[in-house]
Amino acid sequence: MKKRVLAIALVTAMVGSMLAGCGSKGGSGETGTDAPAAAADGAKVVKVGVYEPASGDNGAGGKQEVLGMQYANQETPTIEIGGEEYTVQLEIVDNESSNDKGPSAASTLVSAGVSIALGSYGSGVSIAASDVFKEAGIPALGVTCTNPQVTEGNTHYFRICFLDPFQGTVLANFANENFSAKKAYILTKLGDDYSTGLGYYFKEAFTGLGGEVVEETFQEGNSDFTSYVTSAKNAGADVFFAPVSTEAAALIIEQAAAQGMTIPMMAGDTWDSNVILNAAKGKDVEIYVTTFYQEGGNEEFDKGIKEWINGDSTAKANNGGDDTIAAVTAMGYDAYYVALEALKAAGSTDAAAVNEALWDVSYTGVTGKIEFDDVNGDALRDTAYVKCANTETGAWDFVAEQGVN
Amino acid sequence: MSTKKKTAWNAGLIAALLILLFLLEQVMPSSSMLFTVLKKGAIYALVAVSMNLLNGFTGLFSLGQAGFMLLGAYTYAILTIPVEARNSVYQYFDGGIIQFALPVPVALIAGGIVAAIFAYLIGLPVLRLKSDYLAIATLGFAEIIRAVFQWDKLGPITNGSNLLRNFPSFRSVLFPFIVAGICIALIVMLINSTYGRAFKAIRDDEIAAEAMGINLAHHKRLAFVISSFFAGISGGLLAMYQTTIQASMFKSAMTYEILLIVVIGGIGSVTGSCISSFLFIACSEWWLRFLDNENLYIGGFHVPLLRPGFRKVVFAIVIMMVVLFYRQGIMGTKEFSIEGIANFFKRKPVGKKKKGGASHE
Amino acid sequence: MDWMSRNLPYLMAGISVGGQYALIAIGYTMVYGILRLINFAHGDIFMVAGLIMVYSTTVMPIYIAIPLMILVTVLLGFLVERVAYKPLRTAPRMSIMISAIGVSYLLQNLALYVTGGLSQQYPAIPWINDTVTLFGATTKRVTIITPILTIILVLLLVTLIKKTKIGMAMRAASRDFETSQLMGIKINSVISFTFIIGTFLAAIGSLLFFTNYTGVTPTAGAMPGLKAFVAAVFGGIGSIPGAVIGAFIIGICENIIKGLGWTTFSDAFTFALLIVILIAKPTGLFGEKVTDKV
User: Fold this and answer.
1) Under an 8 Å CB criterion, which residues of C touch A?
2) DSSP C208
């Protein structure tokens, strides 16, 4: 008897919540959005979706990227669209760095009724969610997803960073010019489109310069990199190129140092993170990365965000426990303002109008001037910063600003 | 109720459900999470039922479901990517070596067939193994399949470990419902046939079943191949739902999820598996999401503990509760039927009918 | 000498990983020997041990943190058995295995919640974390210590099982569960004791493993756990020497495969090995032949 009552109660609850979900258009409760205090005074709300990883392989990077947006949001919480004051509300969802959880996370944003979505850190998840945004007619603004496939052939996916063919070439040129490298060891992660993509473009450029490469891959969940380091040494490589997530990178650095690997390690934008600095601190390793932003590029921004991070314990924890500014944070900050520009230009919160407006947005942010090309909506960027990890101070040293001729 | 009347009732119910779905799609915005849950739920229902056919009805404890879904998903994707899109998808492999595209239904069935062929080959050696050994061997096979599909030497076919995309997908929630519905109906028909009775006999007692003249090897292989066939089709559907696929998503964690769905629904109950897959997907993708929100207030009270990830903890605790205290799952070995509901309200003990309202008089 | 310094690192890595797998594999094999249960949560307990170490070293010195970590891990192993497996003792074997999968799911999600999904840096333990050079190959000292420590612990364990009363009770319980109960063996305490030993060794294993591979993530235990289980099956489940030898073979093979450049298949190879042994000799290398009772 008890069980039956319980069963009936459960069924009623289930049906009830289903209907509630229908009624509110998937609005308030279940999508996890509660209007901030500012919205309560009657001002209109425009929602900006944040599609970023907060857990999994790219969790650390995703969190840092979100920090930039959150800081920008609390700096500029309102915006005037078509003569009316709107409160900007960030709708944050975790895509778990996973291509199969990504689409549902993106659907959550769609059903919350966002006008534009920002993200993601990691190219694979961005490609995976692309169709969800496309079907819903919502424009997406890639922040640091560098793989060409994210925007290729899409009119709804834009991005504000440079692309991997460019980044790969910069890295290959750098390896060739500065280390006179003849042989490169390339380590990529299986099933990570960013990693395999950048590895591929580096190889193309490097072999184009007359170099030779040894390629190896590792499976997700692998934590034993000693054999890879040994293989790199045995192959007689001049550089160790590993465009992988920070999680794997920390392990690689640790094990490379333990085995006394002396050749320089190189990587793309993912390695520009304090995770790498902490792993490299006090160890005998040489690490070079290409990135979007160099700390000190904009004093005002640096100072402001450091203050904010130091004053907010959650933000500090999300930044990895210190106040080093990651390039992705600066990119997240710029992405937020690009989104606001688009909303202003569109003069409405309608997603289709925002999509149209994005093509003509021109905005100069802390990471430089941002404009989109007419074909895929990629940012027109022709420089990357090369940084080197200082293993004594645990900070980045600026090395060069590089372009491709 | 007579069998005929019952069939009519069931057909009527299914028709009503489809009409309801059709109407829902007309009136509700297509962006609602409800549709996401329904689409994914239907796909998981199919794979859960296919796993139940093995674990619940034949007593073969197999953990290879994710591997067979991978085979189905890849076959479907590889065969349906439009020729003009192949150059951009297979960008590192010069467009791949397959330069044709098949219609969707053909590719879906091909996915099932490829999974079934692999299952047949894998089954030859491993089906001789007993319970846990079978479980771990099938799990191992799924991992091996995953590694093979990530091998860059097969890149011209599988695109290495990179994403496959641009293949046709579905928009309407009716498509997965109809495909999954047809497949589940076929499985139910199989379960109610002589073969199904032989499967159950093997589950209940292998030695007795063999003594009764049931060919163990043949029937086990049959159950394994059929289950994999449907897992392959659901893999194809999953590819359509996700619009992109990659070998690395088909991890053993996926098999565990499906197994938990089967257990929550009741091992040996087809309708139980269906109901629990919708509940499972709804909880993990939709209803519990509010638990991840740090700033949740109930009447001014700031709910503590909430932050990203809490949803999953709550969900895991609920699952543990079901496993420990509600061992029979939602439906036990019973089936959901009109008669059952009627009895439920008449307060007649339903439990007296041991197995399946639909299959017995 | 050149050949040596080129290839020795693979072998050393293999032996070291093998030792760590062995310490986990013993937990699997002992539990399976008595309960016929694949304790899927064992790998996750291994991961939790790593997390406990990470968090405890932030508030206390390392020489207190290590014993505390071992103690808490053992307690966790004990509790998991009491809460999740004991109530299901009379249930079908499949339910208890599903319960194990449920515990694994819960521990992973709890770890995800606590860590916020970020990889945690394992503390550097002095002395064993130092770099040493052996025959021209540079490595951490822990790599050399692991196999030695593993073998010492295994010898102690074998003595315990052969010579003591509780060891005899364990052997009896694994031979015939019901009869041993009739003979007056307190089966619950024997099972608890088995879990305590298993998790104790897993805690030591986690200490060695994470000192070498310093990132602790919620899923860090899954792969080592699965491989250790494969090692246990490979060596003949229920046999402790079998599990240890199986673990060393798998650890070494895995690194040789990586050394040969077949990195895509390093995990797959382990499973292929498992399937071959299951088909050729279903009871593993050292397993005893069991006939099913009708």
Assistant:
1) 6, 9-10, 13, 17, 112, 116-119, 121, 131, 133, 137-140, 212-215, 217-220, 222-223, 255, 258-259, 261, 263-264, 266-267
2) H
**What is the rounded distance in angstroms from the CA atom of residue B319 to the CA atom of residue B276?**
11
3-state helix vs strand vs coil in chain B, percent to 5: 70, 0, 25
Asked whether residue A152 falls in the same domain as residue A113, the answer is: yes
Considering the domain architecture, whether residues A224 and A275 belong to the same structural domain is answered as yes
CB contact under 8 A, A99 and B244: yes
Chain B contact for C223, CB < 8 A? Answer: no
Looking at the partner chain, which of A217, A230, A318 has a beta carbon nearest the beta carbon of C263? A217
Tell me: the pLDDT tens digits for A112-152? 899 999 988 989 999 999 999 998 999 999 999 999 989 98
Which DSSP letter does residue B319 get? H
A 10 A CB-CB count for A35 gives: 13
pTM: 0.89
A157 forms beta bridges with A140
Q: What distance in Å separates residue B75's CA from the closest CA in chain C?
A: 21
Please, which chains are in contact with A (at least 3 CB pairs closer than 8 A)? Answer: B, C
Give the contacts of B141 (CB within 8 A, at least 6 positions apart). B64, B67, B122, B126, C271, C275
Residues of chain C with C-beta less than 8 angstroms from the C-beta of B61: 94, 97
Q: Which of C9, C214, C219 sits opposite A259 (nearest CB)?
A: C9
What tens digit of pLDDT does each residue of C150-166 get? 999 999 999 999 999 99
Q: Residues of B with CB below 8 A from C109's CB?
A: 309, 312-313, 315-316
Nearest CB to C275: which of B140, B152, B310? B140
Chain centroid to CA C117:
24
Q: Tell me what pLDDT residue C206 has.
A: 94
Give chain B positions within 8 Å (CB) of C25: none
Which among B259, B310, B317 has CB closest to C98? B259
Would the CB atoms of B309 and C109 count as touching at under 8 Å?
Answer: yes
Q: How far is B67 from chain A (nearest CA, A)?
A: 15
CA distance A309 to B293: 20
Is C101's CB within 8 Å of B267's CB? no
Model confidence at A18: pLDDT above 70: no
Convert the pLDDT of each residue in A299-314 to its tens digit: 899 999 999 999 988 8
Across the A:C interface, residue pairs with CB atoms under 8 Å apart total 102
| CATH code of the domain in which A219 resides | 3.40.50.2300
- Domain assignment of residue A203, yes or no: yes
What are the domain boundaries of chain C? 16-221
C182, pLDDT greater than 50: yes
Domain residues for the domain of B188 are 37-251
Residue recorded with tokens 């022709």 = A382
pLDDT score recorded for residue C267: 87
| C128 pLDDT more than 80 | yes
Give the count of Cβ contacts less than 8 A between chain B and C: 118
Of how many residues is chain B composed? 361
Stretch B130-159: mean pLDDT: 89
pLDDT exceeds 90 at position A339: yes
Tell me if B85 is assigned to some domain.
yes
In a domain, A130, yes or no: yes
Q: Are A15 and A7 in contact (CB under 8 A)?
A: no
| Best of C44, C79, C105, C267 to mutate (most B CBs within 10 Å, chain B) | C105
Question: B206: number of CA atoms within 13 Å, CB side?
Answer: 15
* Chain centre to alpha carbon of residue A140: 13
Range of the domain at A267: 164-291+385-402
Highest mean pLDDT among A342-356, B282-296, C85-99: A342-356
Residue with tokens 């295995």: C97
What tens digit of pLDDT does each residue of C23-34 get? Answer: 999 999 999 888
The Cα C117–Cα C100 span in angstroms is: 22
Give this complex's ipTM.
0.88
